[in-house]
Structure formats: structure tokens, C-alpha cells
């Protein structure tokens, strides 16, 4: 089971890098815009998201209800990690919790709603 998961994850990552490099780059730029991450961190964030999606796809074979729950939990955990990193980065430079951080909150809410609708529909 684990061997097939890691092989599937490897194939997905290689597919993202080789066949759709431009699309992968656009997704990385999108992560940079939403979360204010560096390009290096964004690459790892996208890889983590792809791996978590492939992990959740394995659950579809067994029980579909848990697939949606696990995927939502992983996505919320991912958002929380990025939010925590952003707040630590923001406060380390002496920033105040003003308009810029509020716009980041709005982006997170919009992103969460869009992904939630995608998960419910598909």
C-alpha cells in the first residue's frame, strides 16, 4: 500500500515537473500571491498539496465519504500552517495587524470557499 502510494506520488510530481512545467510555475506563482511565500517555499507547498491530494485519492477507492473529510482536513491544516508562518514572518519585522493582514484574511476566506465548493461538487 505504501509503496504504491509513494510510486503514485513520485509519478505525479514527475508529471508536474516534466509535462506541465508552465502550469506548475503558474500554480507556484499563485501560491506566492496568496500566501506571500518565497518561490522556494511555494514549490514545496505545491508539492505537499499534490502529495496530499494523491493520498486522498487513494481513499476514494475504499470509502468516498472519508475522502472528502480527509481532503478538507488536510487543506485546513495546510492553510493553518501557512497562516501561522505568515503571522510569524509579519511580526518578526515589527508589522502591525492592519489592512495588509486583513486583506490576507480575505484571500484566505475566498480561497477556502472556492476549494470547499470544488470539493463538494466533485
Please tell me about this protein's structure.
This protein is an all-alpha fold. It has one domain (16-121). It has five helices and no strands. It has helices at residues 2-18, 21-35, 39-62, 64-92, 99-121. It is globular. It starts with a helix and ends with a helix. The chain crosses the membrane at residues 6-24, 31-51, 57-90, 102-121. Keywords: Membrane, Transmembrane, Transmembrane helix.
How are the SSEs placed, and which strands pair?
Elements: H1 2-18, H2 21-35, H3 39-62, H4 64-92, H5 99-121
Helix pairs in contact: 1-3, 2-3, 3-4, 4-5
Quaternary state of this entry equals single chain
Strand residue percentage: under 5%
Number of strands: 0
Number of structurally distinct domains: 1
Find the structural class using helix and strand composition. mainly alpha
Biggest sheet descriptor: none
Distance between the termini: 25 Å
- Secondary-structure element pattern, one letter each: HHHHH
Unreliable runs: 94-99
Could you say which overall geometry the principal axes of the C-alpha atoms support?
globular
Rg from C-alpha positions?
Answer: 16 Å
**What is the helix content?**
over 70%
Q: What's the helix count?
A: 5
Instruction: State mean pLDDT (0 to 100 scale).
Output: 57
